[in-house]
Every structure is written in C-alpha cells, then in structure tokens.
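Worked example

This section walks through a single chain of length 121. The input is the sequence exactly as stored; nothing has been trimmed or padded.
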Amino acid sequence: MATTYDWNCATVDCYPTDGEYTDVVYNVHWRVTGTSDTLDPQGNAYTATSIGTQTISTSDLSGFTPFDDLTNADAVAWTQSAMGAEQVTALQTNLDSQIALEITPTTVTLTIGEPVPPAEA
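Given that input, the structure is written out below as tokens.
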C-alpha cells in the first residue's frame, strides 16, 4: 500500500501588525489527508484525515513574505519545519495505520436485531 499525503495549511492566524510588518502569520491550521492507492469494492480510495494547529515562530522576520504573496506550499513548509521531521513522520504513520484499519478492520460495530453484513472476500 502506498499513500500520498495532501497538506492543507491555507487557514492561518495573523498578528495585524508586528513591527513594520502587517498580517504576520503566527499559527497555522493544518489538515493532512492520506490517500491510499488501494481501492475499496466500490472503486474509491481509502483515506484518513488528521487536523491540528501549529505555532510558527515570528522571532526572525528577515525573510518575511507579505500575506498576499503567501501560498499553501509556504505554510506547509513552515508547519512541517516547526513540527520537525519526527512529528511529521509520526503523523503520516498514524494516517497509514488508520487506512490499514479501514482496509482490514480488527473490529466491527453491529446493531442487535439488524442483519449481519456479508463478509467481504
């Protein structure tokens, strides 16, 4: 199973002003969706999503990018850098585990009195 990860970091919290700069990003709201190359019986990819926030340091604004010039890729890079490689890997590993449990569940929830769904082959 191979998984691709889509990082959405387009929603941010900003300081209206910080010294001479305006709209300075200090917090990123992130959503990471892992999509498996394995398909379910209906032909849909298995997916898992995790969300959170990451504080971004504003102590050094020497490479400041004006808000209107920011891209999702910029915010993703800042977020992953602030998280650190170990936490990014742990997050993606967790998404992989969620997808694996969708593909091969270890538990099921049934309602008493309802017909049991047939087992998938």
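What to look for: The longest strand covers residues 21-39.
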